[in-house]
């Protein structure tokens, strides 16, 4: 039980940290990011231990990169956030992940999809 409580605390801390980091983004990106994070954390609530480890590692990496890009360690003159995805990373993604990535790109650009 103790490990379960500790895990929940770690997940909550990471979740809250990411949402706080998003406050440093432009309003539209903050909203998009917050919605995405909330959805991802909900969808991965009951994943297995291997998926949980990967999930936590990737979101921790995201938080560290975003903190650096926002200049939390040292002020940055211009706000440039995000990283480019290389072809290898895209090839490793499932089809639903690519679709989700494309939908996020459209939302970030203010475009809507006709469904």
UniProtKB/TrEMBL annotation:
Q: What is this protein called?
A: Succinate dehydrogenase assembly factor 3
Q: Which InterPro entries match?
A: SDHAF3/Sdh7
Q: Which domain of life is it from?
A: Eukaryota
Quaternary structure? Interacts with the iron-sulfur protein subunit within the SDH catalytic dimer.
Presence of the UniProt keyword Glycoprotein in the record = no
The family note in this entry says:
Belongs to the complex I LYR family. SDHAF3 subfamily.
Does the record bear Chaperone in its keywords? yes
Role noted for this protein: Plays an essential role in the assembly of succinate dehydrogenase (SDH), an enzyme complex (also referred to as respiratory complex II) that is a component of both the tricarboxylic acid (TCA) cycle and the mitochondrial electron transport chain, and which couples the oxidation of succinate to fumarate with the reduction of ubiquinone (coenzyme Q) to ubiquinol. Promotes maturation of the iron-sulfur protein subunit of the SDH catalytic dimer, protecting it from the deleterious effects of oxidants. May act together with SDHAF1.
Q: Which GO terms describe its cellular component?
A: mitochondrial intermembrane space; mitochondrial matrix
Keyword entries, A-Z: Chaperone, Mitochondrion, Transit peptide
Where primarily located?
A: mitochondrion
| GO BP terms, alphabetized | mitochondrial respiratory chain complex II assembly; succinate metabolic process
In the record, what lineage is assigned to the organism producing the protein?
Eukaryota, Metazoa, Ecdysozoa, Arthropoda, Hexapoda
Subcellular localization is given as: Mitochondrion matrix
């Amino acid at each position: 039980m103790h490990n379960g409580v500790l895990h929940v605390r770690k997940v909550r801390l990471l979740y809250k940290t990411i949402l706080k980091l998003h406050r440093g983004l432009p309003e539209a990106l903050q909203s998009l990011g917050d919605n995405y994070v909330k959805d991802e954390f909900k969808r991965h609530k009951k994943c297995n231990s291997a998926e949980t480890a990967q999930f936590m590692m990737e979101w921790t990496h995201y938080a560290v990169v975003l903190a650096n890009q926002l200049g939390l360690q040292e002020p940055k003159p211009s706000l440039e956030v995000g990283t480019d995805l290389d072809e290898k990373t895209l090839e490793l993604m499932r089809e639903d992940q690519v679709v989700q990535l494309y939908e996020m790109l459209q939302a970030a650009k203010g475009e809507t999809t006709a469904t």
